Structure prediction request, 99 residues.
Amino acid sequence: MLAKKTAIITGTHSDVFTPTGRTKIGVIWDLSVKIDDKACEFTNTVHSSATPELVDFLGKQGIPWEVFQAVRKPISEAHNRQQTPLFAKSIERHALRRE
Prediction:
């Protein structure tokens, strides 16, 4: 979708595992870095959207999209808070090897 030296935006259909089965959700990752002579700031923003498969999956169970969003949001945010520092460390290790 977008690839520049300081930013990447990419999208996928990612697996969602639930007690009633597995489905797919649309995910867009917006990763960017701000660099100055003293530090770098890494930002990772994640946007989720319903795939037709997910809409059908929820509909068969009588679960409204808004209910699914409300339940999933804190889980997604916790996952992102956990993973972002790990992404940043991985990028840092790679950058330091290239110096």
Notes: Residues 65-98 form the longest helix (34 residues).
